[in-house]
Design a protein that fits this description.
Blueprint (H helix, E strand, L loop, with lengths): L4 E5 L6 H14 L7 E5 L5 H7 L6 E4 L16 H6 L4 E4 L25 H14 L2 E6 L3 H5 L3 H12 L12 E4 L13 H18 L2 H6 L1 E5 L7 H5 L6 E4 L6 H10 L1
Parallel strand pairs: 1-2, 1-8, 2-3, 3-4, 4-5, 5-6, 6-7, 7-8
The chain binds 2-phosphoglycolic acid.
The site of 2-phosphoglycolic acid has 13 residues, from strand 8.
């Protein structure tokens, strides 16, 4: 039986002080849900303060990205070892925004190569996180054009295979995969619950092919993309959806706690 995981991706929102206050508020509203794992992924600068705040709270900490080397002349980068020092249990990898695949294009198209995340860098990041004992939350998902072209499964299979290249099956037991259709992120267009469940099941079967059936049964597959308090219950009731990766709705205690309490 997989424990459900509700993870909040704060993206580039909230100050450290606001973040610490938010986790206190969330904790008050979810105190009787010890059966669900809850995590927040603040911006790097808020991690130390949020880490302090969650010491006695039933909330885990995650980061939004990582660089794959331990230390060195890598200006602006943060390593898995540094995240480990601040108690990060999780780290998002391959989010469509760091892949430069935006649901709603919030930046000029010419700047997209700046984000420059590829399946190869994602693979390196996963390996460095696993080495530090941090659980990767690997994001996969298709764009609207890929869905319309009927290539959704092919795109996701490719993303998974490349991301997990060279990772030993026994290292994958705790892995979290988030199915995040790019067209559903920050757009308010949530994926139909049955379709999200179907793709999450498909992801599990791809993991079984890449690793084995036992690993696939233990890997948690989340859905992400416009999850809100009012659609969470239906999504989280699905047999192959093991939780949610929540963006916008994780920035406010009551709404986020409702999502946790729907699990
Ligand atoms: P959203 O973002 O919930 O705001 O759509 C989800 C995500 O980007 O992980």
């Amino acid at each position: 039986m997989r424990t459900k995981l509700i993870a909040g991706n704060w993206k580039m929102n909230l100050t450290a002080v606001q973040g610490a206050a938010l986790v206190e508020d969330i904790a008050k509203l979810i105190h009787d849900r010890e059966d669900v794992d809850v995590a927040v992924c603040p911006p790097y600068l808020a991690i130390p303060k949020v880490h302090e705040a969650i010491r006695r709270l039933p909330i885990k900490l995650g980061a939004q990205d990582v660089f794959w080397l331990d230390s060195g002349a890598y200006t602006g980068k943060v390593s898995a070892r540094q995240l480990y020092e601040y108690g990060c249990d999780f780290c998002i990898v391959g989010h469509s925004e760091t892949r430069g695949r935006f649901g709603t294009l919030g930046v000029p198209e010419s700047t997209l190569p700046f984000f420059a995340e590829t399946d190869e860098t994602i693979n390196l990041k996963i390996k460095s996180l696993l080495y530090q004992g941090i659980t990767p939350i690997l994001c996969v998902g298709e764009t609207e054009a890929e869905r319309e072209a009927g290539t959704t499964e092919q795109v996701i299979r490719h993303q998974l295979t490349d991301a997990l290249e060279g990772v030993e099956p026994e290292e994958m037991y705790t892995l979290v995969v988030a199915y995040e259709p790019v067209w559903a992120i920050g757009t308010g267009k949530v994926c139909d619950a049955n379709e999200a469940d179907r793709i999450c099941r498909q992801i599990r079967s791809f993991v079984a092919m890449i690793a084995d059936a036992t690993v696939a049964e233990s890997v948690r597959v989340l859905y992400g993309g416009s999850v809100k308090a009012d659609n969470a219950k239906e999504l989280l009731a699905m047999p192959d959806i093991d939780g949610a990766l929540v963006g916008g709705a994780s920035l406010e205690a009551e709404g986020f706690a409702k999502i946790v309490n729907s699990a």
